[in-house]
Please model this.
Amino acid sequence: SNFSQGFLSGFGIQRGQGLDALAGGAVANLVSSGIQQGVEKMRDLTQRGMEYYDTVRLTTFAFSNLLGSQEKATKHVSDLLEFARITPFDDVPVIQYAQSLESVGVKAEYVTTALRGIGNALVSSGQWGLGQQQGVMLGLQQLLGGENLRTEEITRQIRNYIPTIMADWSSALGISQTDFRKGLEDQSIKSMPAFELLIDYYNKTRK
Model:
């Protein structure tokens, strides 16, 4: 293996620890299913492990630009990996989701709170899966990229994965759905404050 133990240990990851999580039954299959099958599994595992390492390394560098220092970036990625270990999210997607949210103005110290709320909403909607996560994250990133909420991203993207989003956001803002729709049409609802109220709503009601 060409993994840099010094780099990974900065995040509390010991050699092999990340690979064990990826491996699943690979070692058992190596013994029970024949040498060739085992070799193929380990080759796949090595490739996936390299991708894991590269993602952690590259996003840490990206976070250093967002946060202003390598030290802050390393601590942030470590916190994200710990969050992934105690939630149903996987390591690499969590880092990618955090990067996409922070690129549109979500604060680093708030991002795990946001991800928890989004996860709660997806699970309660029966939409938990990588494709659903990526879909709703893309919609939120596009939505938060603008100053005000817009109907298109909510109805054409986010609602595919959280069908109750219109009613949920109305409740989070304490207004009727009619008033919420009017606010979307007028583009009079500020994106970031409304997003934080939605996350608070999901973390309180969808645990």
Remarks:
- The chain has a mean pLDDT of 80.
